[in-house]
């Protein structure tokens, strides 16, 4: 990205000047600042951070479910929770936690709202349903990239989510239309080429 001459010139800068540049860059890049703060100063481990955000997600799910109004409003709550997960992963690089936290979000929201979503008119639930199915593809791809010995850690959540989707006609119809075989979840049998399947579906306009 940067040529060697530029790198050498940066290395030759006085330390005070380097410090000023670093602080200026960090003000412009919040993700980098949070990442460095975690690595250099924060006393919490990745596991500690994950435990904290788990509690926050559970609280958010409960609050969103209590005020349920429509799949559209639930989707807004879901996007907010998803943003917190993304921030956690950007900060900690917690790849396993990315799967666990996304499963927690989806399973929790469906367990508490599945009946509402199933009763909603198809067009009202469509955007929410596509989001769920697209997110499940992402989770399966992330699991496939983990070492096979770790897959067992995610089985219960994936199977539970599969069962919840199977009981919801809006979600099932969306899954079928967008190429997600719910049996992959229920039986916890992820195709080896799941990423290629996902890319091909996206190429043909699905999962959007």
Describe this structure in words.
There is one protein chain. With 208 residues, the chain is mainly alpha-helical. The chain has one domain. The chain is 77% helix and 0% strand. It has helices spanning 4-11, 15-28, 30-40, 46-66, 71-92, 95-119, 122-145, 155-166, 169-177, 182-186, 194-203. Helix 6 runs antiparallel to helix 7 and helix 6 (95-119) packs parallel to helix 8.
What is the strand and helix layout of this fold?
Blueprint: H1 4-11, H2 15-28, H3 30-40, H4 46-66, H5 71-92, H6 95-119, H7 122-145, H8 155-166, H9 169-177, H10 182-186, H11 194-203
Keywords summarizing the entry:
mainly alpha; single chain; elongated; 208 residues
Report Rg: 21 Å
The span between the termini is 32 Å
**What oligomeric state do these chains adopt?**
single chain
User: How would you characterize the largest beta sheet?
Assistant: none
Broad structural category: mainly alpha
Total helical segments:
11
Strand content: under 5%
Low-confidence stretches: none
Helix content: over 70%
User: Averaging pLDDT over every residue, what do you get?
Assistant: 93
The total number of structural domains is 1
The coarse overall form would be elongated
Number of DSSP strand runs: 0
Which series of helices and strands comes N to C?
HHHHHHHHHHH
Summary?
The protein is mainly α and 208 residues long. Helices cover 77% and strands 0% of the residues.
């Amino acid at each position: 990205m940067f040529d060697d001459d530029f790198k050498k010139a940066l290395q030759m800068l006085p330390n005070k000047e380097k410090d000023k540049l670093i602080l200026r860059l960090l003000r412009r890049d919040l993700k980098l600042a949070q990442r460095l703060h975690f690595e250099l100063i924060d006393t919490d481990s990745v596991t500690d951070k994950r435990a904290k955000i788990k509690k926050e997600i559970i609280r958010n799910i409960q609050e969103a479910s209590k005020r349920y109004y429509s799949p559209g409003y639930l989707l807004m709550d879901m996007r907010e929770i998803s943003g917190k997960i993304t921030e956690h992963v950007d900060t900690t690089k917690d790849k396993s936690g990315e799967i666990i936290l996304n499963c927690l979000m989806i399973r929790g929201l469906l367990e508490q709202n599945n009946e509402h979503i199933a009763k909603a008119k198809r067009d009202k639930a469509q955007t929410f349903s596509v989001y769920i199915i697209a997110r499940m593809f992402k989770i399966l791809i992330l699991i496939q990239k983990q070492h096979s010995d770790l897959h067992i850690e995610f089985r219960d959540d994936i199977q539970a989510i599969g069962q919840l989707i199977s009981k919801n006609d809006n979600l099932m119809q969306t899954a079928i239309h967008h190429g997600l075989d719910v049996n992959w979840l229920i039986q916890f049998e992820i195709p080896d080429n799941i990423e290629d399947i996902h890319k091909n579906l996206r190429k043909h306009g699905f999962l959007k």
